[in-house]
Amino acid sequence: MRYCYFLFALLLAVFPSQGQAPKTTAATEKEVLGKATQLMQDRQYESAWKLLNGFDPKHRRPAVALQQTELALNYHLRSRELEGFGFVDLKPLERLDSLRAKYTRAAIRYPFAVELVLKNLLKQYPANYKLHRALADYYYQVEQCQCAEADKSPATLYALMARYYTVAHQHGLGDYSSYYKLGYARLSQARIAESVPLFQRAIKLRPDYALAHFQLAYSYTELKKLTKALEEARTAARLADTPELKYDANFVASELERRLGISSSGPKAEPTKKP
After folding, report:
1. For the chain, which terminal residue's Cβ has fewer other Cβ atoms within 10 angstroms, N or C?
2. Mapping DSSP to helix (H, G, I), strand (E, B) and coil, where does residue 84 land?
3. How many domains does the chain have?
4. Is residue 200 part of a domain?
5. Domain enclosing residue 211, as ranges
6. Tens digits of per-residue pLDDT, 211-243?
7. Which parts are the TPR repeats (predicted)?
8. Helix (H, G, I), strand (E, B) or coil at 44
9. Mean pLDDT to the nearest integer, 8-21
């Protein structure tokens, strides 16, 4: 009997029952992130969100949450105070900005409290400086759109932007966009001299970035360096990729020309709030 039992167990091991499911290998985080990136490049934003959220529904993986943050802040269809989002898979000829005007708040299906998710992860992974960068980008977007964090004043948002961008830069996570945004925060805090090298760094990393040239013109104007301000304003006008920015830059340039040629006083250009 003992021999027969052993033989039966051996047969089960070699020939599993027909009802037994075959073993499958779960997708790895790297595979999921790669597939989500491809979906985003294909403008399949809702599919990308579902993939990421299905892989990490409780937002415990920093890399996944960071990709969700990028998707939520930049490619949502609709948002509810940056705590809930709606997405759509775009068809070949569809444009996201056009669709946004058509959809109501009913299109918001997916909860994702950006600030809460990132802060919770930062408590667990304080040395993950990509989380610092993502928080800085979040606060910048909040200040620009004025669509969330109603309890935070603009001064508080500037301070938070500066805090998190500075940490990210200290750990090599800066690019033209982050240096520009930190410069914008310093300019808005009236720390004019500190804004100049930040805008200059953004321009060095992306010489054709018209908005950085425009804001640098404003900083130079405040510092009474009008010749340099005029040069930057003219460059901003030449490189501007929107009619609004071109108009503003040309207006600033004309005012600077007037001040240089006629008097030392005149209207000041206000820092623009374009991303």
Report:
1. N
2. strand
3. 1
4. yes
5. 186-275
6. 999 999 999 999 999 999 999 999 999 999 999
7. 176-209
8. strand
9. 37
**Long-range Cβ contact pairs of 36-44 (< 8 A, separation 24 or more):** 36/67, 36/71, 37/67, 40/71, 40/75, 43/89, 43/90, 43/96, 44/89, 44/90
**Cα–Cα distance for residue pair 79/114, rounded to 1 Å:** 11
* pLDDT at residue number 272: 54
Residue 262: inside a domain, yes or no? yes
- Domain assignment present for 218: yes
Nearest to 194 by CA among 164, 216, 170: 216
Cα→Cα distances 70→14, 22, 23, 243, Å: 48, 36, 34, 27
pLDDT of 270 above 70 = no
Phi, psi of 21 (to 5 degrees): -70, 140
Give Cα separations from 225 to 33, 187, 196, 222 (angstroms). Answer: 47, 15, 11, 8
Residue 170, both tokens:
């200290």
| CATH code, 270 | 1.25.40
Model pLDDT, residue 27: 86
pLDDT tens readout for residues 160-203: 999 999 999 999 999 999 999 999 999 999 999 999 999 999 99
pLDDT value at residue 207: 98
Q: What's the predicted TM-score (pTM) here?
A: 0.83
